[in-house]
Amino acid sequence: MRTMRTMRTMRTGRTGAGLLAAGLLYAAAALAAGQEDVARLPECTHCGMDRKAYGFSRALVRYEDGGEVGVCSLHCAVIELTAHPDRPVKALLVADRDTHELVEASTATWVMGGRKRAAMAARPKWAFATPGAAAAFVEDQGGEVISWPQALAAAREDVASGAQAARPRRSGGVFGCAGPAGAAGADGERSAAPTGAGVFTCGGCGLPGEGRLLAHAAS
């Protein structure tokens, strides 16, 4: 009898372990399915950030012509849209802050502010698939629930402020490069040509400036 009970216990334990393993595999598969865009577009087009690491804030711009652009945040999505105003957009998808699954930006519930550090912008702006998830975040981390038009307007303001701060203060568009070109030169200055909204490329070393302020600082 004792042997039979032991065998039943072992079978029960194996069954429980199998169910746990299956559950973990299912959860991993669901997470992977929700982030398949990261495999295709691993880096942010505008700042080079790892979109897997920023899976909670990433965005995906889908154009009517079939093209897709992956970015790390709403901030960089606005930079992308500003740089291509004549390219019709089919959808703007953003990550749910909790699940990391992509949802339509216009139907998401948005939270601005709170204690979580923002992704690329001065003001945090997070998307949630449901109002309940947004309310739970506000209760735990602070911030306020806002509409999509408000979130978009705030992102545009932040991008404009960032572009203004990045604009060269000297006439002729000269940057003081702290990257390889600056190290090689006597005065460390190289001309910088704009490549997009708030994005600059050093004429000496060719590194983009937006999001890499340690490599490029306005003189």
What does this structure look like?
With 219 residues, the protein is an alpha+beta fold. It has two domains: 37-164, no CATH class; 168-218, no CATH class. The chain is 38% helix and 22% strand. The protein has six helices and eleven strands. It has helices spanning 2-34, 36-40, 74-83, 131-141, 148-166, 180-184, and strands at residues 59-63, 68-71, 89-95, 102-104, 109-112, 125-128, 144-146, 174-177, 189-196, 199-202, 216-218. A four-stranded antiparallel β-sheet has the order 2-1-3-4, covered by helices on one side. Strand 9 (189-196) and strand 10 form a beta hairpin. The longest helix has 33 residues, at 2-34. The chain starts with a helix and ends with a strand. Residues 22-31 and 168-219 have low confidence and may be disordered.
Q: What is this structure's SSE topology?
A:
Layout (H helix, E strand, L loop, with lengths): L1 H33 L1 H5 L18 E5 L4 E4 L2 H10 L5 E7 L6 E3 L4 E4 L12 E4 L2 H11 L2 E3 L1 H19 L7 E4 L2 H5 L4 E8 L2 E4 L13 E3 L1
Antiparallel strand pairs: 1-2, 1-3, 3-4, 5-6, 5-7, 8-9, 8-11, 9-10
Helix pairs in contact: 3-5
